[in-house]
Amino acid sequence: MAKTLSETVYLKRFFLVLSGLVLVACILIAPYTLWWLYSSGDVAVERAVMAQGRDDFVVFGSGVSQDFVDYKLQLYATRKPVIAVVGSSRVMQFRGKYFRAPFCNVGGTAGSLPVLRSTIDAMLHTHRPEAVIIGLDFWWFMPQWNPDPFENVPPTSGSYTYGLENLKKPWSWLLDGKISLRDLAAPLLPETWGGFRPNRYGIMAQQTDDGFGPDGAWYYTAESTGQKRPFDYKFADTLKQVAYGIKAFYRASPLRDSHDLGGISSTHLDAFAEIYCRLKSKGIPVFVFIAPLSTRVLEAIRTHEDGYPHLFRLREALLARGIDVADFTNPLAFASNDCEFFDGFHGGEVTYARILRDMSDRWPALLAYVNMEALNDTIHNWKGHALVYDKRLTTYPEIDFMNFGCPKRKP
Question: What is the percentage of the chain residues whose pLDDT exceeds 90?
């Protein structure tokens, strides 16, 4: 009995001490985690935007949220651009250096026609630009992607907060191997020993220089320089989507409201026409283009061509609505190729420099905003590259990251 009583007292003391240690750990860990998130810049949208608004070369690449509409709208309101581009992640390679007027890339904010409308409305609420470029994704025009293109959908909101979910993330990243113990200790270290860099906001920007530059354009630094294996290596994931007709590559079904439009939903065409006319009615010139696909992916789609009227007949259908559209679906048509793509349907900086030059040739009104000398210099010197070297971003050169046999120059 005495032994049992002694064991009970011991266990009580043990659990009291353990509880005390856990309590102390919580008391210490919570403030440290807050400090870590603050120092890394993962939730520092306002600080990042303030620095980028001064045109400092600051990169924002947060790990806590990839829903960056809040960030983009704040950047847009701060920069007050003369010309802006809006669309999905497939327009995020337009860069400010290719424009002679103040520019902001609001790409990555619109994943459907309803969100495109609400994003543009939010932009106009804070600032009216002189001109807007809109990049179209062909899958926006099919009911499987978005059944009601006139739906009232507000711009999404990112989770750049110090809430409980984000407080857990540095520790879950450590357990998953996404950050190291040195990364976790970075607030305690000087920059030369692995501490956080003051001109990088967010763990992606801190680790590999992935993120948004001051103009809102995205840098795919890690994959293109070989720091990380590409997610869509040799475009395998995109080609799989095409083969199975899934995600953005759904194949069209017969539509009741397509009429004579070759299988394209007239409701979705009307929805975009309404967005286009809304901008035009405010006296804002609008330059519209269809974003490109890699040649390998386009070839795969052509084997199911009847399933993609919303791609191959989209320009014709929009022209019938009175909307002039430049179709850049095929990169070979404007001298680009797969060496200039980051994945199966995201062209790189040189691809988009080619697109902007061709758009300027097509629409002389765009020439007033475009720096043709910078475009021609990039196209001439960086042919076959997805990322144009910039020592402010990284000292690593681009490699043949897809192993397509693409020659890459050393800076």
Answer: 80
